[in-house]
Here is the input.
Amino acid sequence: QVQLVESGGGLVQPGGSLRLSCAASGFRLDDYAIGWFRQAPGKEREGVSCISSSGGTTKYADSVKGRFTISRDNAKNTVYLQMNSLKPEDTAVYYCAASYFGWVVFEPTKYDYWGQGTQVTVSS
Here is the structure.
């Protein structure tokens, strides 16, 4: 069964850090580009960061540049999103998604598999 599972979300104070993980089962992640998206209540889903299958190309939304870092460990079949200097506006459900054709873009329709999401709440 093909599955993506996110973990690492939680409640953190402004300025704090979290590391999200996206683990795959049923397929090899190193064949796919991976994207992280987020959706806050009442807002549309937006792209946060994405990485090519090799890890050689990355992309970040302007709102997270310099604060978030995407990486992958293909040996562990896992992609990570390190989030530093978190702000209340980063509060959202975070999803990872896999693109078979290797799209390193923020267009959700280019992604074939999605995880169930993990909640990140930034609040004092």
Summary: The chain has a mean pLDDT of 95. Residues 50 and 105 are 7 Å apart (CA to CA). DSSP finds no helices and eleven strands in the chain.
